[in-house]
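Renewal narrative, Specific Aim 1. Our central claim is that a sequence can be written position by position from structural information alone. The example that follows is taken directly from our test logs and has not been curated for this report. It begins with the structure tokens describing the chain, in the order in which they were read.
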């Protein structure tokens, strides 16, 4: 009998302790799909027109250039949504999340992804042409990746200066930037003011929600205690935000191109950013 009382008391103590312990906060968790990146890139020659916003914003000399195009898919595998809302409200509040693109006539989110082409022999880094990002639900996250199962998409509007947007990434959904979109490339022949990229093997490194040091124009919204650096979006895990793949850049790819996405039609104009 005494043993039963002790067991009951222990159960009550465990229950009370569990009740007193605060529930773990739900958070988003962004990653980059390495499998998508590795299967959707191409090196090819393209004609970039002077009217393209990616040409204007990237300081690119118009004309035919050698490009490395690539796709970036960022799933939210956490248990909470990324809810940004209307970019106009953030821009009006001057909270550092958005800047105005006069070419596109809408707002660009800052520090969403950092897209780098790296020479593994020297460590030299080239930056991609893309400057503008809009977070919306584009693709459900496959069950094999894990995380919460997708619900109905809820973030679908980038918004403009006059039309309200609703940006974010629901848990169980991905935000995808296909390789054929405007600015979704590296310039390889120096037409953007960077040094030309010689033929050879290189690394594409994509960092979602990249870390940065706070400044007057970019305040620290979320501090990572492990690194002492800032992020614009809260996450349960900042350590899984980087993905890399190896690519081979040929000397003369031609218009058909070289790589997994070679042979796919080139856009006649510049597609939208999303």
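The sequence written for that structure reads:
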């Amino acid at each position: 009998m005494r043993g039963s009382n002790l067991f009951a008391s222990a159960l009550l103590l465990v229950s009370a302790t569990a009740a007193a312990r605060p529930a773990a906060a739900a958070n988003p968790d962004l990653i980059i799909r390495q499998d998508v990146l590795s299967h959707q890139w191409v090196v090819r020659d393209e004609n970039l027109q002077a009217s393209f916003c990616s040409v204007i914003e990237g300081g690119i000399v118009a004309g035919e250039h050698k490009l490395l195009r690539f796709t970036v898919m960022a799933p939210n595998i956490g248990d909470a949504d990324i809810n940004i809302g209307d970019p106009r409200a953030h821009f009006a509040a001057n909270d550092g999340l958005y800047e105005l693109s006069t070419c596109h006539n809408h707002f660009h989110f800052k520090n969403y992804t950092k897209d780098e082409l790296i020479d593994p022999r020297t460590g030299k880094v080239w930056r991609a042409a893309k400057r503008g990002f809009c977070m919306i639900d584009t693709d459900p996250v496959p069950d094999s990746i894990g995380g919460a199962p997708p619900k109905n998409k809820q973030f679908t509007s980038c918004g403009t200066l006059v039309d309200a947007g609703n940006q974010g990434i629901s848990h169980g959904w991905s935000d995808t930037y296909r390789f054929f979109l405007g600015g979704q490339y590296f310039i390889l022949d120096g037409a953007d003011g960077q040094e030309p990229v010689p033929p050879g093997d290189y690394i594409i490194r994509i960092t979602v929600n990249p870390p940065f040091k706070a400044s007057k124009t970019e305040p620290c919204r979320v501090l990572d205690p492990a690194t002492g650096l800032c992020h614009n979006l809260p996450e349960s895990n900042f350590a899984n935000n980087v993905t890399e793949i190896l690519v081979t850049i040929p000397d003369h790819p031609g218009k058909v191109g070289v790589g997994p996405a070679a042979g796919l039609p080139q856009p006649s104009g510049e597609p939208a950013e999303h």
